[in-house]
Structure formats: C-alpha cells, structure tokens
Amino acid sequence: MAIVNPGYRGIAVIGGTNVRFASADIAAKQEVQADDLIMGDWDRDAWVYGKIEVGGSISGPVTETFASLDGVFGWACTRTAPCGTLGTDDVLLYYYCDSDTGGRSRNFTGMKVNSMNFSCTAGDIAQFSIDVMGTAAGAWADTSPPHVTTSEKLITWDKVSVTLPGTYGALNYQSFSFDIANNLEAAYTLSQDNLFPVDIVPGLRSISGSLTVYNAPDFNGADAWDDYLASDTDSITFNIGDLSVTMKAVFHRVQPASATGLITSTVAFTGVGHQTGLPWEA
Hints:
Elements: E1 11-14, E2 17-19, E3 23-24, E4 27-33, E5 48-61, H1 72-77, E6 79-80, E7 85-86, E8 89-98, E9 102-121, E10 127-134, E11 136-137, E12 160-163, E13 173-181, E14 185-187, E15 199-201, E16 206-214, E17 234-240, E18 243-251, E19 255-257, E20 264-271
Antiparallel strand pairs: 1-2, 1-8, 3-5, 4-5, 5-10, 6-7, 8-9, 9-10, 9-11, 9-13, 12-17, 13-16, 14-15, 16-20, 17-18, 18-20, 19-20
C-alpha cells in the first residue's frame, strides 16, 4: 500500500539558498487542446498538447536570511543596462521526504521573477510572495530534501519601518504593501525543439503599493488635482529586517475612512522615474 507523505519536510532552494515558505504552486502547466470541428462524430476526436508554461508562485513569512539586495530580492529587481535584462536562476522544489524512495523533487530552470510582493501590518509578521516564470522543468527525482535545522527568526512588525521625507516621517504607519512587477512574456518560436518557451522576456517594470496611516486624512502632498512637476517624486524607504529598499514614487489621492475605532487612511503610490542604485540596476 502506498504511503501518503506529509509535506513539512519539503523546502525550496533558490540560487543555492534554502527558503522556508508557507505555500508554493510552481509547476509545468500544459493543456490538452480539443477543438470544435466538423468531424463526423458528436465527440471531440482531434486533439493536441498545447504549449508548456513553467511558473507559479511561492509565498510565506519573511525570515531573517530570506531577502537581501544581492540575494532573492536582487534577483527579482535588478535590471542590467543597457537593455534592462533580468537575471535567471534555478528553483529546486522538494515536495516531501519518503523513507523508501527518498522523496520527490523537481528543478525548474531559466526562472525569472515576474513579480514580488512584500507586506506587513503592525502586530503581524512580514510576508512575501514571488511569482516566477521559466523555460524548463527537469525530470522528477527521488531525492531526499536537505535536513535544514538552522534556526531563523521571523521578521516581526517591530523590525519593519517606512521612511518618508519631511513631515511624512513623523506619521504612524499601520501597514504597507508593495509590488514590483517585471511583466514577463513567454516567447515561443516555429520549429523549436519542444513545447517549452524559448525565452522569457521582461517588459516594463511597474511598481505600486499602498500605505495605511493613523490620523492623516489629508496627507499633505497628495492634495493637488493637476498641479505638479514631472520631476517631483517622493522617496520611500522600506526597511524589512536587514533589507532596506528605497524607491521613487508619486502618491495617489488619500482615501480616508471613518469608523468608531482607530482613524486610519490609506494612500496608494506608483513608482515613477528611473530607479537608481541597488537593487534596481546592475
């Protein structure tokens, strides 16, 4: 009788670094195409395998060793001049440990980060989510996952901060969330050797997010409807444990909400202007 194995021994290895996570759905996805045809029958009898799409997401709490400018975060963000190319890396997923066969694992290669999200709310643990795309999925392997026993601290809200210029810096922030999206596209060509993408091409980088702040329904600086200078951007720095990321952005109009409890307002922002320095460019 086959044994059902628990997944707690599973782990991800990204760029040679062991990453603890809460969930992952990275896979090689492929559909069977069975078109509607006039074929002398009332059931579909003509079919073909469709293109293979390699990708998915991995998410969980931020640990003290997870993100660094030259690690996973740099992999997600760094564009290389002059063409804005992204780095590639492997994602090795171990699904479980099996006392008979060792376990099941699969290596996904040519992976690029489509988007990365970080978020944190006061009172909680900082969270991450990465969406990736790649060009190949290796064969299933009967390999035992590494027995990772090194203790790590999770990054709690007291180790997370938001730094803004001027009067913004004196505000009390309840939460934040930001996304960095590379808007990847998978490329397929005629006469290729298989149904995997031949390349994953980065698009324009988009940065967006929001801040929730106490007692600031006006949020000075986001009042004007159309009076602006194109060069007027705000510099937002997010400190998540030892990771510090500064981005140029413009604030949207504030969205205050009234309630009988704590007074909070949410203001969204969009990254604009050329993002300079690490981890934005190599």
